[in-house]
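DATA SHEET
Item: assembly model
Revision: 1
Owner: S.N.
Input lines:
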Amino acid sequence: MTTRASSEGHPALSDQDWGFATVDQKPEIYNPQPSRMFYVYLAMPAVLLLAAITIYPFLWLIYMSFHKVGFGNASDVFVGVKNFARLFNDSKYLQGWGLLLKYSAICLSIQVVAGVSLAVILNNSRHEKILVTLFLMPMMVSPVVAGLLFYYLYNGTFGWYHWIFQSLGILDETSILGSADTALYGIILVDVWQWTPLITLITLAGLKRVPQDQLEANMVDGAGSISNFFHVSLPNIYPFLLIAVLLRFMDNFRFIDAILALTGGGPGNATRLLPVYLFDVSFKFFKLGRGGAIALTLLIVTIILGMILVKVLEDPARKKALSGDTDG
Amino acid sequence: MFYVPKNAVYKTVSRRKFLELGGGGVASLGLGSLVVGLSTVISRRPVQAQSSLDAKWKQYEGSKLVFMSENTPPSFAIRDKIQEFYKLTGIEIEIITDGLPSVQQKVGIDLQSGNADFPISYVQDKPIGSPFADFYADLTSLIGDETLPQDPEGYGDGVWFENFLDACGRFYDRDRLIALPYDAAVACTFFRQDIYEQNTKDFEAEYGYRMEFNENSTWKNVYDFAEFLKRKRDAGADVPYGYAQHQGSFAWTTQLDVQRMFFAHGRWLDWEIDDKLGSKSPPPSNWGDEQSVFLMQKFKEQADVCHPDNLANGTLELNTVYQSGNIAMQVQYHEFAASIEDEKTSKAAGGRTAYAPCPKGEASWILNGGPAVNGTNCGVGGIGINGNASEDVQRAAYLFCVYATSGAIQFDVLTGLGGTPTRKSVMDMPGVADARKRPSSMPNALTFDAVYDIGIKDPNFVLGPKVPEANEYHTIMAAETQRCLSEEISAEEACNNIKSQIDNLH
């Protein structure tokens, strides 16, 4: 048996010795260099499927946003940028943005702090597996069911949560959804209840990969557990946290199900976040052109904010490495 | 991969073959379920005008249709009796029920996209009829078709309760009929006569008149009752709140709540259009005028003395608040009487609740002239046929419409689940007249005096506004009203905001 690596002609392999034995004899049907088209053909079904389910609707969205979409016998009318121009005078659209940003910022802050704290507590705890399973249960409930569940829990007549809030003196007889001042917080609570476990789960995965030797070395140097977390664990779970924050951020920007079940956007416009307004315009008023324009702006802003978020939260170590600063 | 005993006898299935079989199976199941499970199936046996009635009912035997409806008592009752319809016609009907907002969206998408996944659907007058009227089939030709079985009572205005055919069947064009009245929710006043009797002495000492409610009681009286009970409650007395409004998440119910009070005062309308037919191009609205600002202020004052959770309560929740004994009065739809009279779930049952027409306008609150009336509105749910469906599907669907709106079915629903009849003939059926008085075996009948004898008759009844952008109008109106009740904006700002937004809708 020869011990020399053989990689003649194959672009993926170099001539270096890989350290393990390979067989010299090639099979009879062996194409050492498949043509580029071979890969294109392989990828084609997936690309076509992807195009059908994502690119086509996206192009159609762009088309709609520049038209007044007609139904039945009525044909579509090209209106240029009128649908977009109208948005700047639409108070509900502008207010929807404000509410969405407020909601998203509060949700993310609470979820990150609570999710990471929970993960740290759960990590290597005595009943970790059972507790993780229990904490993950809210995530398995569909958002609309979560909305309906809290709708009953918040109810001013028979809701259990309302009774607790009232007993603690947080609320009077007005339920959390019955006031424009508190309704948004009622919705935030549902989101926090349902999606904090996701942050916990991802962070927990990150914590499992924190090198024990670094933790031990730090402790030998006299560091306590808090110092250990901030100086060793946190830098190590940073990439995981970034993924979690990014996922939740994008989810928040399309959050609608629970709001529709809880308030429908009210009282007044107090919970009419932009995605809710988009739903109203598109599927209650059937103004698909205007809805297309709202959706497109929402999509573009989500992408831009997502990129900014990645930039801001990028792993400092990686950032340093990319900028060429290797001094330490 | 798997352990195979030596010398085992088995047939080899290659991986490729396995994938082919699996893929084929999945595709067949998917397509099969789409074709058989979701779509309409139609088969026809030709009949003549001279054919027997049985042959006419059975001409589409073997067909399958889908009926998309709101989750109301008639739909549940018809689902229970669907075997009876199958025996009569041989047509299989799949009844899908959902909340009204979902029905509105699903039906709207189906109709406007040119599909006919729901050949038969629930036509709730304003939320579904107003925006989608043009997409429904005109029933007038089917009504006159001698090759189809017809209801012996007919379908003219006279066989239905006053205004019902106009409410759900006619939109923008008097000669087109898009739906037959199937069920009705008409507003009337539910009040706790026991609480009124207990408090009338104290009330009279303060306000100078008895704490009673009847067809001449006004919105000013409603305010006085609510204000009196709230004050008493705040002072520690064990009394419920006096009143609560319909707000909550479904905008239409808030619009109806405001409309009742506004119409009661000089028959004020949002737009100067034919209230029964509506208009596709309404003129500038009346919102922002002196009368509307004044009444919005009164509506706000009334909200201030209501149950504190006023803004969270939609129609169903409001009824729960009343059932639980937390308010002494609600203006509610007469289909809810059955739930109020259920002693297992309601503290207001057992003769504690009395029913009266909606409150009358207060003469001193009418600024623009016009009469004070018992402003009453409704949601009359029709049953209509998708205009995109083929002629045969429309004819088969019509058989179901005839069956579902017949007097006999309506009587069954009234006696069984607590329905709300739309045909006058039901009033003459056995036991219905007696049920209008206590003790009643058909609790909804306790409201019939208030609803059918007074509420739905002119000049009290308001049907509209029937405008194509009704749903956006309801949303705008509800949002601005709720902002006013939350003290975010003034009554005048609310009215002006409504005007500026709705005048650009059409």
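QC remark: Chain A has a mean pLDDT of 86.
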